[in-house]
Amino acid sequence: MDTVKHNLTNLFLQLGLAAEENDIESFIGSHSVDEGIPLEEAVFWTQGQAQFIKESRENDADWSDMVDELDTLLREDK
C-alpha cells in the first residue's frame, strides 16, 4: 500500500527533481508545454520521468491527480 502523501513536493521527488518550494517554482517558471503536446512528450523529461507520467495517467494511478495539476501549471501563461 502506498502511504506517500500525493502532493506536488512528493511528485517532484518521485520524478527525481529538486523538491523545495523554490525549486518547484523555478522549474514551473522555466518550463512549459505547448498546447497539443502530451505532458509526457515534453522535451525536458528523461525517459524514466516520461514513462512515470504516462503510466500514472493511463492507469489512473495514485499520482494521476498530481500529474494533471503539474500539467496545468506547465501550460499556464507565464
Automatic annotation (TrEMBL):
<dbReference type="Pfam" id="PF10982">
    <property type="entry name" value="DUF2789"/>
</dbReference>
<dbReference type="InterPro" id="IPR038086">
    <property type="entry name" value="DUF2789_sf"/>
</dbReference>
<dbReference type="InterPro" id="IPR021250">
    <property type="entry name" value="DUF2789"/>
</dbReference>
<protein>
    <recommendedName>
        <fullName>DUF2789 domain-containing protein</fullName>
    </recommendedName>
</protein>
